[in-house]
Amino acid sequence: MTSIPGLGLLDSSLKIQFFLQKDSISLSIKLHPTWFFTIQITGTGLTKDASTWAKQWLEDNIKEVKVEEEGVTAQLDKLISMDGDVDVNQRKGKVITIFDVKLVIEYSGKTKDNESVSGTITIPEVAHDTEENEYVFDIDIYSDANSKAPVKDLIRSKVIPELRKKFAQLGPALIAEHGKDIQHAPDANPVSKITAAKTYPHNAPSQSTSTSANKGSSLVNTTTVTDNEEFRAPASELYQTFTDPARISAFTRAAPKLFEGAKKGGKFELFGGNVSGEYLELVEPTKIVQSWRLDQWPQGHFSRLEINFDQNDVDNVTVMRVSWSGVPVGQEEVTKRNWSEYYVRSIKQTFGFGTIL
Question: Where is the stretch described as Disordered (predicted)?
């Protein structure tokens, strides 16, 4: 039994559905198999999701950061991921920003001996209420070595201060770009509208239910998952491991259920169909991009899996950098766990590419 204020106790047939539209939210409450009512709340854009715009703004602005000191160089190359929410709101007639995101940024540089260095800067929290001196920066180097330390030091001393300034500009930039879209007169309050209950016969066509289900399944909240692993093997060997059907059969312990070839548009199904996807981009021997999904994910939903192989000729080590964008929220841990167990560990064990973790 379910209780709703003003409606009393309801039986287990109660169903509540939300329908999000551009300027409104509809709440459909089904009280009985044959009737329901809908509450629709509409307004003049009190809140605007600016996540996509903010991600592009950050991408464009961080690329402006390039520094050099005593023959050592460093620059920010791209925004690998942005997880979190960015909104522009109007409250009591005032436009404000509310955002809280985690950022992972890729950088590159060179030592004075012309050794190439690359890695990531992770900022666990960039928020609307974070002061410029409160940001935390975690700096990592791909295939770390003592000779690369000068670039990391330059990142810390010169690049990080520039990033602090950029983050401080995000809030004002959001208001300047989106503030006008949500402003309204003080008395222009949102309107609630209750639609009278509608009655349908018991034998209503089942098509309505299936259509709603299909629409719902396409709305998947997603996030980005990243992972780095070291292998005692050249990049060419790792690239072949992900593209040669014989090698794929070896580390997955079974022939692919489907393999149309390592080519753009080539589909595959591995682990008995528990993993499926399609090759989207191949740059031998450094990069593979696939659409990729676990069978347990919502039907038809694929993430974008990007695999980069960074070879360090000095240490004979290749770092495999992996980024999934579009992983369903709640599936982050199982995705990384399966990748670590059935890909990374199995590849190292099968081909002897490193210490088994």
Answer: 200-219
